[in-house]
């Protein structure tokens, strides 16, 4: 933990694979006065992730592990996390599946954001499936990561209305905006209890 202006901030790592808009948003959030987290480390499995371009402009430590040899990579990652005294991991558009062993080591301390109203539409291509099924609502969910995909305890959800004009792209943009509000709120909610 890091003590900052009277409140203790939890040392947090963010795992990304792509654009990193949720990552950027969490970094911004971590710098606000009463934020319960400080972003100390970012991991990307993709060296071409857009999020990396942003990170290079910051002082935040980051590393690339491509997960081609997942067990080896996870061992090295766990060492880094231990060395840096990371207490919380936020998955933010991270497209790799973490092993049961890894999840056990961080039991209850890995969060994920998923662009649907879980338990509906777990997995990939969420918005496409939602539109195909003519759903009236979709949304986003922040949940604790357990050993089953997109199935851990839900911390918070936000419902989003789908208009007749929406396609998967417009819906994804609408939901992403809500994700940026939801992730910080969920962190506050979860961390106010510990
Ligand atoms: C988000 O919609 C997130 O819910 C999903 O992947 C997308 C990542 O977006 N898991 P970004 O990389 O944070 O911009």
The number of domains is 2
Roughly how many Å is the radius of gyration?
A: 16 Å
CATH architectural label of the largest domain: 3-Layer(aba) Sandwich
How would you sum up the global shape? globular
How many strand units? 8
Strand content: 25-35%
Category from helices, strands and their pairing: alpha/beta
Q: What value does the average pLDDT take?
A: 95
List low-pLDDT spans.
Answer: none
CATH class of the largest domain: Alpha Beta
> Any ligands, ions or cofactors bound here, and which?
5-O-phosphono-beta-D-ribofuranosylamine
CATH superfamily of the largest domain: Formyl transferase, N-terminal domain
Biggest sheet overview: 8 strands, mixed
Straight-line N-to-C gap: 13 Å
Q: What does this protein look like?
A:
- 36% of the residues are buried.
- With 194 residues, the protein is of the alpha/beta class.
- Strands 1, 2, 3, 4, 5, 6, 7 and 8 form an 8-stranded mixed β-sheet that branches.
- The protein starts with a strand and ends with a helix.
- The protein has 6 helices and 8 strands; from the N terminus they run E-E-H-E-H-E-H-E-H-E-H-E-E-H.
- Helix 2 links the parallel strand 3 (37-44) and strand 4 (61-64).
- The longest helix has 24 residues, at 168-191.
- The chain has helices at residues 21-30, 50-55, 70-83, 100-105, 126-132, 168-191, and strands spanning 2-4, 7-16, 37-44, 61-64, 88-91, 110-114, 137-144, 154-161.
- It has 2 domains: 1-107, Rossmann fold (3-Layer(aba) Sandwich); 115-139 and 156-194, no CATH class.
- The protein is globular, with a radius of gyration of 16 Å.
- The chain binds 5-O-phosphono-beta-D-ribofuranosylamine (GRF).
- 5-O-phosphono-beta-D-ribofuranosylamine is lined by residues 16, 18-22, 92-93, 113-115, 176, 179.
């Amino acid at each position: 933990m890091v003590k900052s202006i009277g409140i203790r901030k939890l040392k947090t790592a963010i795992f990304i694979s792509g654009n990193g808009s949720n990552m950027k948003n969490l970094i911004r959030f971590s710098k606000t006065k009463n934020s319960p987290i400080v972003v100390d480390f970012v991991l990307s499995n993709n060296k071409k992730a857009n999020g990396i371009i942003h990170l290079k402009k910051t002082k935040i430590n980051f590393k690339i592990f491509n997960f081609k040899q997942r067990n080896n990579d996870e061992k090295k990652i766990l060492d880094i996390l231990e060395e840096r005294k990371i207490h919380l991991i936020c998955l933010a558009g991270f497209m790799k599946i973490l092993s049961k062993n890894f999840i056990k080591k961080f039991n209850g301390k890995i969060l994920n954001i998923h662009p649907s109203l879980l338990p509906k539409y777990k997995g990939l291509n969420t918005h496409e499936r939602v539109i195909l099924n003519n759903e009236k609502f979709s949304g986003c969910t922040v949940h604790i990561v357990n050993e089953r995909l997109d199935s851990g305890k839900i911390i918070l959800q936000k419902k989003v209305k789908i208009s007749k004009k929406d396609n998967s792209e417009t819906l994804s943009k609408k939901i992403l905006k809500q994700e940026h509000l939801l992730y910080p709120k969920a962190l506050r909610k979860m961390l106010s209890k510990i």
